[in-house]
Amino acid sequence: MSLLNPDYRSGADYAFLVSRLPPDIQRMHAMGIRNVTLIGFDPTSCVYFWRSIADLAMQKTPAELMGQTATARQLRFYKWIVRGRNDADMGMQLTGHGGTDAARQAASLLPGEEKRGCGHCGWAPAQKEVYSYCAGCVIESQGRRISCMYYCSRKCQEDHWPTHKTFCTTRKKVVRAAHLIQKLMYAIEAAGAQRQVESLEVRDGVTHLHEVPQEELVLRGGPILNPVAQGNASQEAYHAALTGQTCNEIVIVGRQLLNLLIDPYCRHMEVITIVPRNAVNPLGILNASSKLNKECYMMIGAHKVIRLHLASGETLLLDISGAQYGWREPVAPWDKWCRHRAAHVNHANAVHVSDTIENKQRMLASYEQIRGERLRRQMAQRIQSLLSTEAAQRKLPSVLALLGLPGISYNVFEQHVVQAAQQACLQISQSGRTSRRGL
Ligand SMILES: [Zn+2]
Ligand SMILES: [Zn+2]
């Protein structure tokens, strides 16, 4: 297969793309080899190449994307991907014009719960409004019920309880734990990110984050970790900035929290790689002055999530860093989430949550990054002791018992511990800066 589109064989676009080819392939081009088979090439090299095409596509005006040449078609296709591979944006592939923001937003929402019969007797009232549902185990996303147990009457709900109880209480605790962990990870990222954000704006369907290049950070001798302030950014853009490229962090820095709050309800947890779709305003991390990594659109590449096999028999998705795709729910039914959010699920690559990813990451990381990771681990540890204190103050037997608190008390606890975590993390990030100044 030809790596470069035949239409690219001349002109500025061609020169641009050749300059971005992975070094091995560039050498082959220099030798006049034009047809390269991708088999046997390191897939990450290909990702760099795709990123270059994506970058080119994003630089084109809509007028330049029109027409039926192979180049125009290819660039439109990449622009569609970069903007989120969104169902409402499909027209972009034909005309170069995308869907409205509202349509893209709507298409990105997980579908609501399908109309189903009573969870106990199976009777299905004609109107959905007649149903009541179990408030214990409902999973919501952006104000919509995406999964719940319906009942036709109070009696049916009561009669079903002995059967439903285990499923319900397990799910309720896992859903609470997932939301809590997401907020705590946001606290860590907000206080101590491995990047320094220069600006953040939503433009052309993408949340553009300009960062100070890593090389420059090292040269400046700046702090290892940087707080990320919300500034004028919307909540969505801010969370996208916090979660950009952090999908491994949940099993590295967040692992203690996973083990503490989620693992006890699971038979096992796996990390699974997916190719995202139906994103809305996905993140693009851009830094014009870096030689290594000029642009990195989150849609070019894969996303890692966790599949939870609960002891109750249910399979749930856990996605702490979905905000980089404009997704907000940390937990959802696995199958439903995959149908809507994944263009491809790489089940073959599933790995158990263990040290593997951590060790791999550490092999690739710089000395600075490892020092940063150490501080971030301290933050996670401090959060763990905050949770223990909350449990002790309420005379609860364990941290897990916090997840079973009745509604209002739970909300009070959550708000309190998240605030305390934000302060503690900032303090640790600050102490890292001070100690460094003394060096
Ligand atoms: Zn019923
Ligand atoms: Zn329930």
From TrEMBL:
The keyword Heme is assigned to this record: no
Domain MYND-type: 118-168
GO MF annotations, alphabetized: zinc ion binding
Keywords: Metal-binding, Zinc, Zinc-finger
Signal peptide: none
Pfam families: zf-MYND
Classification via SUPFAM superfamilies: HIT/MYND zinc finger-like
Protein biosynthesis listed as a keyword: no
Superkingdom of origin organism: Eukaryota
Protein name as it appears in the record: MYND-type domain-containing protein
